[in-house]
Structure formats: structure tokens, C-alpha cells
Amino acid sequence: MQIPVQFKGSNFTLFVIYLNRLEPSILYQAIKKKINQAPSFFKNAPVVINISNVNDNQINWKEIKNVFISTGLRIVGVSGCKNLRLKNMILEGGIAILKEGKESIIKKKIIYKNKSHIINNIIRSGQQIYAKHADLVVTTHVSFGAELIADGNIHIYGNMYGRALAGANGDQERQIFCTNLSAELVSIAGKYWSMDDIPIDFFGKSARIFLKKDILSIQQLN
């Protein structure tokens, strides 16, 4: 007899958004500015809000929650909360309170060049590279926890263990080329596969990932 449910551990890509200000209008503008860099990627993205940098006694949770809802982001949890009254309010709204672990701060590098950008260094965990209006070419390895984002195509000529997001501006014609595909996540124009979704026949091999009729597809590179 099949059991009704199964509990399994898994890994998902979540953004942690640290609040440094509490004014709703300022938060909204800052979040929208970030979303507009890659609207397809951030559409309905699940996020965790970290409030450790602000005075949680001054937080109007209803206002903060409405700001995030209005931007299209989906709140799945709150971390850094020490105020018991606020914790209860958040929990009553159906949102989890998360304990803070060791969260690495992403070292972000934005590239404003309308041509291919080539990186010859290993991309290490916690690093994020964004090629705006450009292709991104990495000639070496990409570590677990590292992230590549490009409005154009992404090429990885090494072991790919991190996350690769091509067509971040919504361009469905973009592709990902990889000589050793072992990625945490791959995405084109907001359509994504986590590691478990990558077909096993292509895992650890050279591959080309592209969209076909709005569905992610994969072929082996010759």
C-alpha cells in the first residue's frame, strides 16, 4: 500500500532580502529597480525577508508585506526577527519564521557592456556575475553557490556546479552551453530546472539548453 505522503529534504534557490530601511515607498522603489534588471527571472520569485538590520519594534508588518506583494515577489519566510509580538503576527499570516544560518553575502558584479564578456577565473561560492545586454563566457569552473546571470547566452567551458540564468531580460532565444553540466539550477527567460529536473542522461556531460515552444529542452554537445 502506498503511503499518503513522503517527507524529503531538498534544495531550492531562494533570495534573502535584507531590509535596511522601513519606509514603504523607499522599499518599493528599491525592489522594483532590482526586479526591472531581470523581470522574467524575478517574476513570482520566492523570497525570505531578513529584518536583523532594522529595529523590529518599529516594523509595521502589514505595510512591509503589502510592499512585497505589490512587487510580485512571494514571501515564504522571515528571518532575523526577535520581537515575540511580531513573530506571532507573521506566523498568524501563514508565513514561516526561519532561524538564521550561515548566510553568505553575494559579491555582485554587474557588467554594463553590449558585447560578450569573458571570465578566466574560477567563480566561487557566493559570487554573482551579471552580464547586462551581453553574452557571458566562463573558461573555467563555476562552484556550488555561485551564480551566472546574462541577458544573452551563457557558455561554461569547465565544471558547472552553480546556477546559470540566461535570457534574464526575457529573451527566449538565448541558450546555455556547458562542457560539464552538474548545475544547481539552469534557467532561460524565467523557465528553470533545478538539479533534480536535469535529465540524468545529460548530467555531468556536455550539453546545450534552450527553449522549444516555451519548454526547456536539452541536447548533447558534439
From TrEMBL:
This is Probable septum site-determining protein MinC. Interacts with MinD and FtsZ. Residues 118-218 form the Septum formation inhibitor MinC C-terminal domain. The gene is minC. Keywords: Cell cycle, Cell division, Septation. GO terms for biological process: cell morphogenesis; division septum assembly; regulation of cell division; regulation of cell septum assembly. The keyword Flavoprotein does not apply. Residues 5-75 form the Septum formation inhibitor MinC N-terminal domain. Cell division inhibitor that blocks the formation of polar Z ring septums. Rapidly oscillates between the poles of the cell to destabilize FtsZ filaments that have formed before they mature into polar Z rings. Prevents FtsZ polymerization. It comes from the Bacteria. InterPro entries: CAP/MinC_C, MinC, MinC_C_sf, MinC_N, Septum_form_inhib_MinC_C. Belongs to the MinC family. It comes from Candidatus Tachikawaea gelatinosa. NCBIfam families: minC.
